[in-house]
Amino acid sequence: MTSIKDIARLAGVSPSTVSRVLNEREYVRAEVRKRVLDIVKEQGYVQNHVARSMVLRRSFTIGVVIPYLFNMFQRQLFASMEFFLEQQGYKTQFFFLRWSDASEQAFLRRLKSETLDGIIFIHELDNPSIYRYIQERGLPVALCTFEKQEFGFPAVHIEEEASAELAVEYLIQRGHRNIGLITGEHFSFGRQREDGYKRALAAHGLPYTPERTVRVPAYNPEAGRTGMLTLLQRKKPLTAVFAVTDELAIGAIKALSESGLKVPEDMSVIGLDDIDISAFTNPGLTTVRQPIFEMGKKSADLVCEWIAHGRMQGRAELFTATIVERESVRTLT
Amino acid sequence: MTSIKDIARLAGVSPSTVSRVLNEREYVRAEVRKRVLDIVKEQGYVQNHVARSMVLRRSFTIGVVIPYLFNMFQRQLFASMEFFLEQQGYKTQFFFLRWSDASEQAFLRRLKSETLDGIIFIHELDNPSIYRYIQERGLPVALCTFEKQEFGFPAVHIEEEASAELAVEYLIQRGHRNIGLITGEHFSFGRQREDGYKRALAAHGLPYTPERTVRVPAYNPEAGRTGMLTLLQRKKPLTAVFAVTDELAIGAIKALSESGLKVPEDMSVIGLDDIDISAFTNPGLTTVRQPIFEMGKKSADLVCEWIAHGRMQGRAELFTATIVERESVRTLT
DNA sequence: TTGTACGCGTTATCAT
DNA sequence: ATGATAACGCGTACAA
């Protein structure tokens, strides 16, 4: 491969001069600059990124930590991040994490070996040692869709509890009293959204009945489907269900139709996230929208600013969720 | 950061010895090896990946080229690749490409600067100069979901035409004669699937009527929706539609339900791909399954073997698609 | 304004 | 079996 030395030789200057030209330093005659640039173009020369990272001790790369089986919501989120990161001159390196300690350990090893400039988490980790390592090293970081109070990292997320409350409130306003909940066992947002559900019930003097809640091991459609089936099986009266993510809701709707129940005639369903596909389900899914694109941008901005200023810039960035009305909720009369 | 020199000093040996231990070379006394390993563990030392890449002139990284707005099918594909690549000790670096020449140029620049060990394309590029560059450099490469005869790169894909034919054949067997087609303007698989559609019609002596074909600018649900609407508007008799991807099919079903038409009672719909979500639509989407997981694995294997043996290993790897029966197709009587 | 020399962390080669 | 040294490609301090 052609290196900076080759260019220097061809242009009849020293490597340092070529370096100065390429990095837009001053102190180089316009004439020389042009000559160098011409040769660079002619040779199709591009700086070797590895060598550059080594000497600069930075990689212009931001890591994005995401579950191995990322869902559609996270997919949209990281597309947004990648877009804004690239705009600011950063490459994105994804770390797909499995739900195991071994996977988190492997991640820590990579973290140590890769000289990332910053890191964004779209995935909540169990192991606090990783957060601790990042904190000690002072690595610029942002959390997206969750927070970790103990570490004081900047966090980007919606008000989980309030957003869930909004969804349930919407059902109650439409006359629903017997409302089921499908949530997940893992991650703090599952618990927070469950709290929002309870708060909405309480605000209207409705009792919380544990039999109307089911906790599933994942947040995908299949889990939503089995969750709904379980709920149905318990034979508690139910006119509506709040699924804490859209994917769960999509699975719930499937279970309902398999059971010969119509949405929203026989059962109303509301989700939370507003992923792309939710506009295309039958019936269209009524849900609560997270501003995905903006949240991705904010996360990217937070780490980039931290890097630029050399110190942490923000703390929590709270976004507001809004109802998206489609056809999966019926008004009881 | 602690470096190999620090470990060497702490263990009372030279950096070379530490290097030998870490890379599992022979010629190092068991006793010394243990001492080094203990220090490494104690210090939490990990080799610096950047320095290593520089001297070894390889990065243990495979690039995966994918459209910026990758669809759910591609999402499953690259998850599979990432999984197998990691298993073989490679990191995955994604390149999200936009549909523009500028984006392809930027990609070429990165390609030159990054010392990748290999590359997989899940995205067909317009610009032959990129393929040419890869060919000249002898960079291990695999194409997934398409091929480029001119360059003779190994390619992993289903028999596009035959798979489409299978879908249409399925409709014809069930009594459908007036079958619409929703396909995309771009990429060779769109044309190939269209050819398969025509071949199935011809095989049964059915005429090809251009008014029953619509070509949309993307392969996502929204494009499928507008495509279906267009088809409906033309008022040609129609009992079934073949959408060349599942995402298009999902959009088509949405358009149908918006128009007050029931699937499959008033109109049958069949897709192609069998993405995860297709099992959860209402009605469940009848489609043709690409063995996504296996195709991802095969692509990963092809580049890894190429790297290991120092020369190209396979050529075309053809996979067979199979019908997945769900509820979106009705048998006419 | 430009060139020389050194160092970044690692591995391979060659001595010992 | 182990250590010294050079080299990978680049940026920068310092000399010129």
Q: Any chance you could write out the topology, listing elements then pairs?
A:
The structure is a homodimer of 333-residue chains.
Chain A: H1 4-11, H2 15-22, H3 30-43, H4 49-56, E1 61-67, H5 72-87, E2 91-97, H6 101-113, E3 118-121, H7 128-137, E4 141-144, E5 155-158, H8 160-173, E6 179-184, H9 188-203, E7 213-216, H10 221-233, E8 240-243, H11 246-258, E9 268-270, E10 287-289, H12 292-309, E11 316-319, E12 322-324
Parallel strand pairs in A: 1-2, 1-3, 3-4, 4-5, 5-11, 6-7, 6-8, 8-9
Antiparallel strand pairs in A: 10-12
Chain A binds a DNA duplex (16 and 16 nucleotides) through helix 2 and helix 4.
List keywords for this structure.
Rossmann fold; 3 domains; DNA-binding; 12 strands; homodimer; alpha/beta; four-stranded parallel β-sheet; six-stranded parallel β-sheet; 12 helices; 45% helix; 16% strand
